[in-house]
Write a structure and sequence with these properties.
The protein contains 13 helices and 14 strands. The chain is of the alpha/beta class. It has one domain. The longest helix has 30 residues. It is elongated. The N terminus is likely disordered.
Length: 357
């Protein structure tokens, strides 16, 4: 069985490349003393959320809809203060003698971002296991199929398969970030935009696996066992990309280019807001994972959020069967959305609180 490194865009859901990292993270200075901050929790979404303009002042976040989001996403869920502690938002889910500590994450964050890790450090010191993102598996057939799907074809190129304005948008992003657009001309358009997204984010110090990656390094330092919450077949996702219609491919590329544009202007703001549990500002400055939505074959992120929410709830419930303490990172969008993972866990009889430790 062979493991494929598909792309960070694909692996956001299906793999944890951070597990393959061997280098230690950059050293951090101890965080300066910080005031107490807010932990947040959702209420019912407003009836008529105002659409979000990317030009709207960033210091006035409110429930809004971003491109690619639906009215059911966490972007339109009202959030209110329920407790005050330093650092990012954390929740404890408890059943009997079992506890799962959940750290909320964002789809795109600054890499090596310094944040108050006091509480999560104490939690890891007392934990039995760190649950990490699912792994992706693929055999020889899946690997061969991936090699075929990712190409543009012998008699075509990526830009010839895009509408002219989209091709110009793609090339403009590449050029503005010091990347030769010819790098992608022989790729399938979807694969090309995945590679562009990874390259641009890397140049700007942005990542799609934080804060989980930091927790993995911290767990290794403590020799804390790590366990993937699931294992998926990479071949099934490869097949989905190969089976996308021309219209679906075009929409996927367009949405991902919009995601790149938005993330470059807002990820730093979102990361700083996340670090102090200001989830209203964090969600107002967070893009969707557009590539994931198109690979799932969804018209928007709603179908993907439903699936990942169900997976998150199952992973937590499975961990609660065994005595002890587990730690896991889940996207805030699936935790705090309408009927999100936290609501479903409460409905299932679990005690969900904000830990003081």
């Amino acid at each position: 069985m062979r493991t494929i490194s598909l792309s960070l865009a694909v692996l956001l859901v299906t793999a944890s490349p951070a597990l393959a990292q061997t280098a230690a993270p950059d050293a951090f200075m101890p965080p300066p003393p910080k005031p107490k901050h807010t932990e947040l929790q959702p209420q019912s979404p407003p009836q008529q959320p105002a659409p979000r303009s990317q030009n709207q002042p960033q210091n006035q976040p409110q429930p809004q809809t971003q491109p690619g989001q639906t009215a059911d996403d966490w972007a339109t869920t009202e959030i209110t203060i329920v407790a005050k502690f330093p650092g990012p938002a954390l929740w404890r889910v408890k059943k009997g003698s079992s506890e799962v500590y959940i750290l909320g994450g964002l789809p795109v964050m600054e890499k090596r971002f310094d944040w108050d890790r006091g509480r999560i450090t104490r939690i890891l010191d007392n934990a039995n296991v760190l649950l990490v993102s699912p792994t992706a598996r693929a055999g020889l057939i899946g690997f061969t199929e991936w090699q075929f799907v990712k190409g543009a074809g012998v008699f075509s190129n990526a830009y010839a398969q895009m509408p002219a304005p989209m091709a110009a948008h793609f090339k403009a992003i590449a050029t503005a970030n010091g990347i030769d657009p010819r790098t992608y001309q022989h790729d399938n358009p979807v694969y090309a935009v995945m590679k562009l997204r990874d390259a641009v984010y890397e140049k700007h110090g942005l990542g799609t696996h934080d804060p989980e990656k930091m927790l993995i390094f911290m767990a290794r330092d403590r020799k804390l066992p790590m366990k993937p919450i699931a294992s998926y077949s990479a071949a099934s996702l490869i097949g989905k990309m190969g089976g996308l219609s021309a219209q679906a491919k075009t929409q996927c590329v367009a949405d991902t280019l919009d995601e790149i544009d938005f993330a470059l202007g807002h990820a730093a703001i979102a990361s700083k807001a996340w670090a102090v549990a200001d989830l209203n500002a964090a969600r107002a400055n967070s893009p969707n994972s557009a590539t994931l939505a198109c690979l799932e074959g969804a018209d928007s992120t709603r179908a993907l959020l439903d699936r990942t929410t169900q997976d998150a709830v199952k992973a937590v419930n499975d961990a609660l069967v065994k005595p002890g303490k587990s730690v896991v990172v889940f996207p805030l969008s699936i935790l705090l959305g309408s009927n999100g993972a936290l609501d479903q866990l409460r409905a299932g009889g679990a005690e969900v609180t904000v830990p003081e430790m």
